[in-house]
Design goal:
Helices cover about 50% and strands about 10% of the residues. With about 375 residues, the chain is of the alpha/beta class. The strands form two sheets. The chain has a five-stranded parallel beta sheet, sandwiched between helices.
Length: about 375
Amino acid sequence: MKPVISLPVKSLLFILAFVISALAEEPAKPPVQSFLFIGNSFTFRHELKDVFQALAKEGNPGVDFITERITYGGRDMFRHFELFRSQDLLRLQSLSDDDLRHSMAEMQALAGSAEEPGFYREYWKNIDSSALKPWEEYEAKSADAKPARAKAPARKQTQWAGDRQSIKAAIANHEEWISNRKNYPPVWNYVVLQSWQDVIANPETGYMKYAAKFAEAAKQQGTKVVLYITAPYSQNMEPVKEPLEQERAFKELHIASDLAKKTGAIVVPVPLAVYRLQKSGAAITLRYRNDGHPNQCGAYLTACLLYAAVFDKSPEGLSLSQVVETKIVDKNNPNNDPDGNPLKRVFTDDERRLLQRTAWETIEAFRKGEF
């Protein structure tokens, strides 16, 4: 039998005091807030998550922020939920590797089918019959919308071939989540759900249905939902004298407000910010002339809206004053944005203050129902 070594009481007390002192000297880790963005190019252009993160860090000293996105160009919440299983990243730490592989197997079966599945055809049938107004009508009648793009984005069953390719990308994303599970937070504090021409009054289809499905998954994780409502139909590429498409903007805002009341979500009402900015007579533009996406000003306004809505305080006074376009549209001119200007837009103090003030006043107006 080995002899038992006993330490004097004084030695034990010294060791204990040393350990307590060492622990006390270890700096406390700052609190962390995590945000998952789900959407399409209206989320990944300008790396919206990074612009928001920069504002969030400056406005909340002592807090760390993690931002991640899962995006597929031109895709909406329906496809994120039914085709790409993006809710798996939202629930990642509560799912096993086998759960994720089961999702991958189901997606593989979809990607291998040349025929559109029945639920896919039914979705487009319902959304076409319920839409407020097709995008094409706005492009056709609005001089301000031309020549934004050669043709309006097709969101019909003919997109199935493209969606099959996106499903393959989603499978690859699931593989990455399995391999790097430890790099993701245990729970997402917020999930940002981007709309895309799918905000319609019928709760059985479109954004109303699928944002609600994501919200239910988020509730199970203790994650707060943010409804990011885009406004591709009303953002102006030239200064305007009157707001564009006010009727549609206000309809979408009422629908988003109803959904927020049902789900307890936060709303980022881009259509209302666009309306108020245009109503004010500001000469600032929010979209590119040669591209249907928000320009740097539109991206900054959206990030400020996110900040104001999530933190319930004004971004006014924050110093961030630039946004960089992340997509190279002309390989011969890689330093230019879609309109031929520098990729980096540095705002004047007046522009920065205008966009920040508009964001906060918009959030206050939305909460008061002023739309």
